[in-house]
Design a protein that fits this description.
- The protein has 55 residues and is mainly α.
- It is built from three helices and no strands.
- The chain has a domain of 35 residues.
- The termini are far apart.
């Protein structure tokens, strides 16, 4: 399997997050909201308690 292939569960989670409306100002957005939320979920699963732990 190629390294760029996404796992089905990851795709499902990203699709779920894509349904959330992004109210940020477009010119200030560096990363899609769904990807930011995915990183927060992964950081929380890895015992991250706050922004510094997750970042």
């Amino acid at each position: 399997m190629p390294e760029t292939a996404e796992k089905p569960r990851l795709r499902l989670l990203l699709d779920h997050f894509a349904l959330i409306e992004d109210d940020r100002e477009g010119w200030r957005v560096a990363h899609p909201l769904s990807e930011v939320l995915l990183l927060v979920v992964c950081g929380t699963i890895a015992a991250g308690d706050d922004f510094e732990d997750i970042a």
